[in-house]
Amino acid sequence: MQTQCGVKLRIRPIPDETISRLFPYLRALICLTEKGYKIVSSNRLSELCNINPSIIRKDLSYFGEFGKRGIGYNVVDLLKTIRGILKIQKIKKVVLIGVGNIGRALLSYPNFPSEGIKIIAAFDNDKEKIGTTINGITIQDIKEMEKIVQTENVKICILATPVPVTCEIANRLADKGINAILSFTPCRINMPKNIEVKCIDLSTELTRLIYYSHNNL
Fold this sequence. Notes:
- A seven-stranded mixed beta sheet has the order 7-8-6-5-9-10-11. Strands 1-2 form a two-stranded antiparallel ribbon. A two-stranded antiparallel sheet has the order 3-4.
- It contains eight helices and eleven strands.
C-alpha cells in the first residue's frame, strides 16, 4: 500500500472503465477548485459527472481510502490524488500532426493546460499553413517532426491526418520514441503492443448516436 497526499493507496488491478471515469471526476474537481469549494460529496460529484454516486465511491475505493462518511471528499486532496493516479502531476508534452479543421480546433482548445496537457508543436505539409500561428503555436513543416519529438522527448502525439499517410506517420513517430497515439483518422493503426493507440472516428460516433436517437423516439 502506498500513500499519496495523505491518502492510503491500494495497488490492485483497475478496470478500464474506472480509469475512463477518472477524467470526468478530474474535470469536475478542477471546476470545483476554481469556484473555491473545499469539500464535495459523492452525490454532488454524481450531479456534475452524470455518474451514479455508488459507482463513484466504488471507483475511488480501488485506489484507497478517500473522504469521510457524512462529510465528503477534500476537493484539493482528491484532485491531487487523481492527477497522481493519471500521471499528470506535471504537464505532459504532446505534438499534433495535421492542422486541418480538427487540428485547428484542438490547438484552440483552452482547457488542456488545466488537465495536464500541453501541445508544444504542430506539423503539416501544407506550405500555406507552415509558419502560421494558432493559439501561440507556430505550424512547422512535417519534415521537422522527428527532430522535435526526439529533442523534446515527447511520448504522446495526436494524428489528424488524411487516411493515406496516417500509418506511415505513426510508424515514423514510433521509431522516435512515441508510445501513445490519439488518432482522429478513420483507419486502423497497427502498432507494437508497447504503443497505446486510441482511434476516434467521428462519423462512426455520430452514426451510433443517430441509431440510439432513432430507437429512443
